Amino acid sequence: MFEQLGLIGCGLMGGSFALALKRAGLVKRVVGYSKSPSTTERARQMGVIDVEAPSALLAVSGADIVLLAVPVSATEATFKAIRHLITDNMLIMDVGSTKRDVVDAARRVLRDHVGTFVPAHPIAGKEVSGVEHADPDLYSGKQVILTPIDRTLVGHLKRANDVWDAIGCKVLQMTPEAHDAAFAAVSHLPHLVAFALMHGIANQPQGKDFLALAGPGFRDFTRIAASDPKMWRDVLMANRHEIIEQAKVFQRSLHNMLQHIEDSNSEPLEGMIEMASHTRAHWRMGQKK
Amino acid sequence: MFEQLGLIGCGLMGGSFALALKRAGLVKRVVGYSKSPSTTERARQMGVIDVEAPSALLAVSGADIVLLAVPVSATEATFKAIRHLITDNMLIMDVGSTKRDVVDAARRVLRDHVGTFVPAHPIAGKEVSGVEHADPDLYSGKQVILTPIDRTLVGHLKRANDVWDAIGCKVLQMTPEAHDAAFAAVSHLPHLVAFALMHGIANQPQGKDFLALAGPGFRDFTRIAASDPKMWRDVLMANRHEIIEQAKVFQRSLHNMLQHIEDSNSEPLEGMIEMASHTRAHWRMGQKK
Q1: Could you give a single Gene Ontology term from the biological process aspect (chains A, B) (predicted)?
Q2: Which bin fits B201, alpha (ψ -120 to 50), beta or left (φ > 0)?
Q3: What's phi and psi for A282, nearest 5 deg?
């Protein structure tokens, strides 16, 4: 049980975390700050936060748990804004989709207090953003990855584990590096590919005619292409090294398939499709096999 | 109202068409043939067809409506198998995902009777195949594209229009060429890309670990990668020209985005994502705008 959550960023992710903690009876009071005062006000009107803070620093003041729910590119600046009020009793977490850059920023800015920060990535989201979509169920039944470093305090890691567990998450642990490689493959590259495919269609003179004919397969395939541009620009930049590596793997597979199509090599083409189809048909979300 | 449907291919697509016609009271009797006798038998046991035919030719005998629901690569051989019993009163249709190759096969094989064939592509399907998944609702509320040629008989085209309309489809008409270009963009290339992405992940030593972390975005993005390998091998081969053209457009967009990522050009990267995201967020299935 926490006394006070300092919430920095009262959007979809932060607002949903606050609502989930409140519903589970895990926090007495939520003090929130968002860059846009109208967002902070709206969050209070909706009951997502109890008190509006005029700055990130004041949102942290007196908190025993702090959540940074800001774009990954704003992480370092946010650490700088709050570092003077950080104490070793405070559990600080984030919700960023990339972890190596966030950990690097924490090392640079938090220094002796870096052990209070437990990097977290909940695998949850929606294609819509903003506090009006905040949902106490957003995280329930989802995975959350914690990526502690050598200097992370064991007690803080344990508390981080407990709080995500209490709001219904399955908690996993891995290194920031392993996290970033895996998510480049199964999240960041798929987003990039979906954006590129939509961009390619929209950029053609007949694009609108084509889109009028698209069916349910296209709808699901491109759902993630509607995601927030600024957020994804930042994620793609932050994890560029791993994404470029995964893009090479993908481009090689695509190139080989196109070559087989061009050369009428139907057997190896079928073999590659078969491998993809078999893997996908046997995959179950959240299960290792 | 038809007397007898000759169904060649009693799988998901053909079986669903037969069930939909029966439910709408549009046909008195369905005579079915599948390459595998056990499929034909199962279709009869399930009430999808009324009579098992021992050959494609005998399925056509006495029919006033014929549906070819076979892989696109089997279209020409099927036309050859049935041509001796085709009469000008018979309405012949297919359900293939590509149309230029099907029309070419019809011209070559059906010759003077080519006008009885109304090429059709219903935009419906499932990731599972087989008569056991046949569903009288598969086509309802979906689009179907008819691609008549100059020699198509107007009366047949009208009847084709009416039968799809009667089972709940929105009927559109376009040339085989326009059809193939559009579906290369919004269906065939997305399938190829989804197959290549899954293949690339599965082909890596850490692939299984990566997949265990994938979330709902990945699930939807890769749903079409579980599609039937033989069917898609055929579609990709049959529409190769348009698919290769669309692949170039996509590869160019992807290449440019990756270049912006590598060069830290975040503004043009965001611009491209923004265009994709805006287009996808405003797209509605089956609506032209």
Answers
A1: tyrosine biosynthetic process
A2: alpha
A3: -100, -5
Q: Tell me the per-residue pLDDT of A221-255, one tens digit each, with 9 for 90 and over.
A: 999 999 999 999 999 999 999 999 999 999 999 99
- Which chain B residue is nearest to residue A267, measuring alpha carbons? B233
Name B220's Cβ contacts closer than 8 Å, sequence gap at least 6.
A220, A221, A223, A224
Residue in B222, B269, B279 closest to A233 by CB: B269
Q: Which ipTM score applies to this complex?
A: 0.85
What are the residue ranges spanned by the domains of chain B? 2-174, 178-282
DSSP-based three-state secondary structure for B160 = helix
Q: Does domain A178-282 correspond to CATH entry 1.10.3660.10?
A: yes
| Chain segment A106-119, per-residue pLDDT in tens | 999 999 999 999 99
The whole-angstrom separation of Cα B254 and Cα B286 is 26
Q: What are phi and psi of A82, to 5 degrees?
A: -110, -10
Architecture label for domain B2-174: 3-Layer(aba) Sandwich (3.40)
Check A253 against B200: CB less than 8 A apart: yes
Beta-carbon separation of A212 and B258 below 8 A? no
Q: Which residues are paired to A33 by β-bridges?
A: A8
- pLDDT tens for each residue of B200-216: 999 999 999 999 999 88
Superfamily of domain A2-173: NAD(P)-binding Rossmann-like Domain (3.40.50.720)
Nearest by CB: A186 against B172, B210, B288: B210
Tell me the three state secondary structure of residue A47.
coil
Cα separations (Å) of A34 from A107, A256, B120, B215?
A: 24, 48, 54, 27
